[in-house]
Write a structure and sequence with these properties.
Residues 132-143 have a biased composition (Basic and acidic residues). InterPro entries: DUF305_CopM-like (IPR005183), Ferritin-like (IPR012347). With 240 residues, the chain is mostly helical. It has helices at 7-30, 45-70, 74-100, 169-177, 180-208, 212-238.
Length: 240
């Protein structure tokens, strides 16, 4: 006998399917050497995006594995596992691009130096994280908080300074301590903000990068992460 999927479960599985399709496309491109006449250089948006998005993805994998380990909610565990596996694989693809371009995995350039202008997204109000869920997640205005407003102490990972959507070290520490619906809500809140930041970076890469592989990946990331955001917003609403 077939069980009937709940709307929430269907949304989670659909988001996972979108990510899987995107990942398949990225793997196809990532397995090939760049054939563009101009190979990205050290200061290019292509290289900067590839490095910074690996850092951004690394935190998403960390948060997802925390949620997968601590949650008892099947939908939360499913979407966390899907995001962790997909983004870990994408880290490998971006690392391979840099190797193919004969560039290092790290750079002396400041994080996000590849972006021209600011990261305002007036056209799409969904890029502004919703702070009205009552989970005590303050200061997430789509940008990583690297200093505490009261003490001036560093709170974010130095490698991710200035990246949009990163959770603070305090948020990560709190996520590791919570279980049940409270932990699920915090994970979803942090990951929605994190994904919105990832979408902002991908949209910037679409305008700044020159390599077709990078631009194709960025476009697919926008589609996949927006699908995840929609699923997580519905999940968060259902868990209030």
């Amino acid at each position: 006998m077939f069980s009937v999927l709940s709307p929430a479960r269907f949304k989670v599985l659909l988001a996972g399917l979108v990510v899987a399709l995107v990942l398949g496309g990225v793997a196809l491109f990532g397995a090939q050497r760049t054939v563009s006449a101009a190979v990205p250089d050290e200061a290019s948006a292509d290289a900067g995006f590839s490095r910074d998005m690996q850092v951004h993805h690394t935190q998403a994998v960390e948060m997802s594995m925390i949620a997968w380990d601590r949650s008892d909610d099947l939908d939360v565990k499913t979407i966390a596992y899907d995001m962790a596996t997909a983004q870990q694989a994408q880290i490998g693809h971006m690392s391979t691009w840099l190797e193919n371009w004969d560039l290092g995995q790290s750079s002396s350039l400041e994080p996000m130096a590849w972006m021209n202008g600011d990261m305002e997204t007036d056209e799409d109000p969904s890029m502004t994280p919703d702070s009205g869920h009552g989970d005590g997640v303050d200061g997430h205005e789509g940008m990583s908080d690297t200093t505490d407003s009261a003490t001036g102490a560093a709170t974010g990972a130095a490698a991710g300074a200035g990246m949009p959507g990163l959770a603070s070290e305090e948020d990560l520490a709190r996520l590791r301590t919570l279980t049940g619906v409270e932990g699920d809500r915090l994970f979803l809140t942090l990951m929605i903000a994190h994904h919105r930041g990832g979408v902002m970076m991908a949209q910037a890469a679409l305008g700044e990068a020159s390599n077709d592989t990078v631009k194709d990946f960025a476009q697919k990331q926008v589609i996949a992460q927006q699908a995840d955001i929609e699923a997580m917003e519905e999940m968060l609403t259902a868990r209030q």
